[in-house]
Specification:
Distance between the termini: 90 Å
Strand order of the largest sheet: 11-12-13-14-16-15
CATH architecture of the domain at 102-213: Roll
Largest sheet: 6 strands, mixed
Order of helices and strands: HEEEEEEHEEEEHEHEHEEHEEHHEHH
Number of strands: 17
Oligomer: single chain
CATH class of the domain at 102-213: Alpha Beta
Length: 285
């Protein structure tokens, strides 16, 4: 009888130990050996983060949390920092999003490089206009404003509009000047045109840009969705998780709001846009 009691006790202890081992919660990811800025009331710095289904379950000491949770994926951050998502309280997020649909001519070393980028963009995007942004003549060997002549030789039948990095100047080809009705005699308050050989050179300054930009076909709702989601993914990739856009019209506010409301649902339109994660095929059409 005594031996029977010992066997039963041993069995009960074994079940208890087994239960403790198997009761550890399974999670998606554990980051450990880190410096985790929690931004709690004490601004404490922890060693470990437990993540499941996209949510932070717990932060704390790694020896405690590694005993508490099971995971198939853990990352030793080797003392690196983990921060909460950054917030930009004043930005132009939709403008940045639309930039994703345009030719990126920033950080170019010559105007010939700009032309090459525009040619590649034209092959990949069957749009009615070629629109780009980011050139800066100060980065080129010849530090002078370019003229429309090279644009005209390569792009005769399609309007080309490329904005300087600061947004206060733009270069266009003759096709654009024709569409906007700009001649050497055109006058505009708060802006100007550069002349070359007594005709518009293609360079527009400040308010003169508005005479052209109003003719650019409006971006479709579908391409606006693609642009917004692409821009959001790029922001997430560098830790920027919230923004305040300093200037949106009602239509764009409603579009962004609709994307927020569809987030996490099985809405086919949104899922298609997200899963494709593609460059638009017919922007500005």
């Amino acid at each position: 009888m005594k031996n029977t009691h010992i066997i039963i006790l041993f069995f009960m202890i074994s079940i208890g130990i087994s239960s403790c081992i198997t009761s550890k919660k399974e999670v998606d990811l554990i980051l450990y050996n880190a410096k985790v800025y929690t931004v709690d009331s004490a601004f404490s710095i922890q060693e470990c983060v437990v993540i499941d289904s996209g949510y932070i379950l717990e932060t704390g000491q790694q020896d405690v949390l590694l005993k508490k949770y099971n995971t198939k994926k853990s990352i030793d951050l080797k003392g690196k920092f983990v921060y909460p998502g950054f917030i930009d309280a004043h930005c132009h997020f939709f403008g940045y999003a639309i930039d994703q649909l345009e030719a990126d001519v920033a950080d170019t070393k010559s105007f010939d490089e700009v032309i090459a980028i525009l040619q590649k963009f034209r092959k990949e995007n069957k749009s009615k206009w070629i629109v780009g942004r980011g050139w800066d003549q100060n980065d080129w060997e010849v530090k002078e404003f370019p003229t429309k002549s090279k644009l005209d030789s390569v792009f005769k039948d399609i309007p080309v509009f490329i904005t300087r990095v600061d947004g206060h100047a733009a270069l266009v080809n003759s096709k654009v000047l024709e569409i906007a009705g700009i001649t050497k005699d055109t006058k505009i308050e708060g802006g100007k045109f550069y002349l070359h050989n007594n005709e518009p050179s293609g360079i527009l300054i400040d308010n003169a840009i508005e005479l052209v930009s109003k003719h650019i076909p409006k971006t479709s709702v579908e391409d606006s969705k693609i642009a917004l989601i692409t821009a959001a993914e790029k922001c997430f990739a560098v830790g920027l998780t919230s923004v305040g856009d300093a200037g949106l019209d009602k239509e764009m506010v409603l579009l962004i709001d609709s994307l927020h409301k569809k987030r996490g649902t099985k809405n086919e339109d949104l899922c298609d846009v997200k899963s494709n994660y593609r460059k638009p095929g017919n922007i500005y059409e």
